[in-house]
Amino acid sequence: MAMATGRSPIRVLVIGGGIGGLCLAQGLRRAGVDVQVYERDESADGRRQGYRLRISPEGEAALRACLPPGLTKLLTATANARDDSGLAAYDERLTAQWAPAFEDPRAGRDDKIDAVDRVTLRRILLAGLNEAVHFGKDFERLEQTSDGRVTAYFADGSEATGDVLVAADGTNSRVRAQVRPWDVPHDLGIRTIFSRIPRREAIAAGLPEALRDRFSYVIGTDGHHLGLMPMLFREPPSRAAARLWPSAGLEDSDDYYMSVFNVHQADLGLGDEEFFAMSGEELCELVIERTRAWHPDLREIFRFADPSTAFAVALRATRPVETWDTCPVVPLGDAVHAMPPSGGVGANTAARDAAALTGLLAAVDRGERVLADAVRDYQKAMVEYATEGVEMSMRIAEWSIKRARG
Ligand SMILES: Cc1cc2nc3c(=O)[nH]c(=O)nc-3n(C[C@H](O)[C@H](O)[C@H](O)COP(=O)(O)OP(=O)(O)OC[C@H]3O[C@@H](n4cnc5c(N)ncnc54)[C@H](O)[C@@H]3O)c2cc1C
């Protein structure tokens, strides 16, 4: 293995300011490494990003490793207040089916972070990065320079050059499209409608006690599946931010359920063009229409879904997960290991990548490692744990297809 000698400060360019890219930026900043993030969205609130995120023990450890202590405290203060270690499954008549308990080494810990609000998380991940995050930068292409560096070109005509370029631009990665055009995540044929249901209204309307405080999953014999996941803030985000990190700009949100409605393309009876053109109102209507034979208490819940929060996605997965032979272009997150959200580990895996890469790039910056060696070690470990994440998520997604299609 080649040994590096003397300090050799590097500049890291991160394409994509999502969960993985920002987590990496926080970690590198903490380690004193020069990092610049280029995000396509015009601002932090640029698009629908989903709602509640489950955080695994590994994901929590990675977030804690990357964030400075003040932001970790803020994330803890605004995390989900309820114990989230189980799942209760029902049929569409609300008859209990089974209720597996998941082992969670954090059980009973007051400061555990087992689920967070995604908008709050992204704001926390942006806090303190200020001039290191460049919004409105739509990456178009890259070129390697003769001295081994890499230049990124953006749609607005600007460019940036660094020693490392991290592809953190998500499932549809344009960086990947350039350097590995054949490597496209598989479409699993499952279509999902996400929405946000205010908890207070749902309970006032008679949401059954059993569905209120835990992750509930309804498996319809009609081929439709519904997940309901509560997000109850430990502390209102604005109050926690005022106490812990005033400039984080957190906004309050009421407690809510994230609802996930899965249907196989074949059961949907609609082409993708038509499905993905549907408005939030139409998506909510579709869910109400498809569940009209369900127990009235379940149907009632959707009356309170906020149509402006409803959006549709196609579930996709990278199989197999592979190393990229493209150093100094380095992959991270969904760009290299897309997986269906069914396992609740995609963001956690991106955070793990960020924590692992932070340690190795900091060692390169200090002159203790050679970049190519560090990147090879990162990818070797990443492929292993990311493959586990993809396969676990696939088992859950495939189970759902099988049950849905009989
Ligand atoms: C509704 C939903 C629920 C989920 N729930 C969970 C969960 O509970 N737990 C979990 O672990 N995971 C969950 N996931 C998966 C998780 O969201 C992803 O795995 C995670 O966001 C991946 O992080 P990332 O940084 O790789 O990509 P992203 O977070 O998607 O970020 C990519 C970023 O790159 C930017 N970008 C894209 N193209 C360009 C370009 N050309 N130029 C510049 N910037 C660009 C995008 O705007 C975006 O900000 C869920 C996913 C969905 C859709």
From TrEMBL:
Pfam families in alphabetical order: FAD_binding_3
Molecular function terms in GO for this entry?
A: FAD binding; monooxygenase activity
Q: Which InterPro entries match?
A: FAD-bd (IPR002938), FAD/NAD-bd_sf (IPR036188)
Domain FAD-binding span(s) in chain numbering: 11-179, 314-369
User: What keywords does the record list, in alphabetical order?
Assistant: FAD, Flavoprotein, Monooxygenase, Oxidoreductase
Under the heading PANTHER family, the entry gives: FAD-BINDING DOMAIN-CONTAINING PROTEIN, MONOOXYGENASE, FAD-BINDING
Protein's UniProt name: Monooxygenase
